[in-house]
Amino acid sequence: MTEIFNPIALTLIILVVSLIAFAVEWLPVDLTALAITVILMLLGLVSPEEGISGFGNSATITVMAMFILSAGIARTGVIQVVRDFLLKWGGKSPRRQIIVMGMIVGPITAFINNTAVVAVFLPIVEDWCKKQNISPSKLLIPLSYATVLGGMITVIGTSTNVLASGISQKLGYGEFGLFQFTALGVITFVIGLIYLAFAAPRLLPDRKAPSGDFGQDYSLKDYVSEVIITPRSSLVGQTLRSSGVQRKFDISVLELIRDGAHFPQPLADKVLAAGDILIVRGSREDLLKIRDERGLDIVPDVKFSRKEMNGDSLETELTSGEEKIAEVLILSNARLAGSTLKDLRFRQRYNATVLAIRRGEEVIRERLGKVPLRFGDLLLVQGPRESFLGLQTSRELLVLEQRDVETLRQDKAWIALSIILGVIVVAALNWMPILVAALAGVILMVITGCLKPGEVYGAIRWDVIILLAGLIPLGIAMENSGATKWLADQLLAVGGNLSGFWILMFFYVVTSLLTEVLSNNAAVVLMIPIAVEVAKALSLNPLAFMFAVTFAASNSYMTPIGYQTNTMVYGPGGYKFFDFTRVGAPLNLILAILTPLLIVWLYGL
């Protein structure tokens, strides 16, 4: 095939198609990357050995190990220890709150995967906001951005940094040292945090009530009702399972009340009797249909209205006795994504009912069983209190409330902390490569009981691993075909007369824009080899260009989908899409100007 077509042209065509595929997301990005690898092998642009080399690449394995180490830290409750500092020193000023929060999470994310840090701090910050009567929308975008900024302090702070280090080694410049760009990372972190402290309180509106009134936040009043089973009802003597009403009418029975006694889930096999009161979630249309077909009476909204007038809320009604209601976030490594609640048999699996789904600014309350779930979706879930213990231990879901101490191995916290510190020290002193130190740390996490063997595989973000492994062959194809050198020559022809600083700025801006529509890892794979070629041709410092691309690829603040932590806070904060642009665009601009200047000052050009 490469004999028929010019290898450079063929590689560039595949590159363009890949960029479009990443942008429009015909497939999940990890599967897109894998498909690109297969196409490259079929066309002979990479050999089979080169095509699968990404799975054995040191960057891929190092990222895998860091996911596991982060899970060990999270499972033992090490991060929870610092929440007391947040509560003690946060104060009531929004500026102070953002600075204190940033100073806590930033250094942590320098060594621990930032999605794990956000997963731990989301419920902590939400709980703190309730106590301080602050809207969580004021603090959750700053939380995400602070972890992104903190991840740029060390090489192991993000998978993008590790991948950039691996590309540097492949290009002949060696791996980055653990603290090689720490000076730059610390300065940009401080600048970014100061900006967030002053700008975010002014630019972010109160999107979500601090009280955590779920009935109000999700507009549930018209979707949760009481129905009475009359003597003439066809449901008398039947169970919910045998009657099929929940499937046919798209309603969910949350609770059964009989003679003043409340019966929680599971209710599927409970025999119904005349006079039973059912608390159900469903649209008015479905309730009217079930009333006419099954002989039920709908209780007017007197009860809920009266409770609200007395200062209580719908949430109070749904959390009485052994029942409770809470928000549950779908995490980025969840196998639930792409499936519907019906496919997953969510009610049967978790013994809990989904009342509504929040997807960014959109709230879905109807036909919930048929909605394909996505990473970042926020589920409003109601069920028995013991069911939430099971949800808390799930590796795919995050209950947005303080995690029960019983689900953490706090007696192992000091061991996990010692292991991660050992990995950092060994790698920093160059006693062994980061890859070897991280893998040794993984083994120690399991041997010491910080992680159970089965938890190791669940800790790995397989979508990121496959994405990395699939992108590396694209970089190889670009190099083998000469496409990288050709692109670099075109850039030199256009901008060769510019000063080195402006060319450095150009690569920062282009990478920053690319990472908003692609994955940050894809932007690094594409841009670093081209940047290095240009630097060599102009006799400039290749390291400065690699740092510029690496920082630009990770500093993604413009959209809720540009970075995983942004997506995680999108629903919990009740944000609108352009809330991220409102705060993130100025931050991107500030860093686009200052980062190249700092690189020239710190590392030379």
Please give a structural write-up.
The chain is an alpha+beta fold and 605 residues long. Among the domains are: 60-210 and 413-459, no CATH class; 222-300, Alpha-Beta Plaits (2-Layer Sandwich), CATH 3.30.70.1450. 58% of the residues lie in helices and 9% in strands. The chain has 29 helices and 10 strands. The protein starts with 6 loop residues before the first helix and ends with a helix. Residues 301-312 have low confidence and may be disordered.
Structural class, from secondary structure content?
alpha+beta
Biggest sheet strand order reads 3-2-4-1-5
The helical percent reads 55-70%
Secondary structure tally: strands: 10
Mean pLDDT: 81
Could you describe the largest sheet, including whether it forms a barrel?
5 strands, antiparallel
Helical segment tally? 29
Radius of gyration of CA atoms, rounded to a whole number: 27 Å
Low-confidence stretches: 301-312
Strand content: 5-15%
Q: Termini separation (Å)? A: 41 Å
Principal-axis shape equals elongated
